[in-house]
Amino acid sequence: MERPDLPLPQLYAFVVLAEELHFGRAAARLGIAQPPLSQQIRRLEDRVGHPLFARAVGRVALTPAGEKLLPAARGALSTLTDGLAAARAAGAGRAGTLRIGFAASLALTVLPGLLRTFREQYPEVQLHIQEMTTAPQVEALRERRLDVGLLREPDDDPDLSYRTVLTESFVAVLPAAHPLAGQETVEAGQLADSPFVLLPRHVGPQLHDQLVDLCVQAGFQPRIAQRAVEWQTVCALVEAGMGVSLAPSSIARLRLQGVVFRPLVGTDLRTRVVAGWHRDHASPLIERLLAVLGDLGHREFR
Question: What family does the Swiss-Prot or TrEMBL record give for this protein (predicted)?
Answer without folding.
Answer: Belongs to the LysR transcriptional regulatory family.
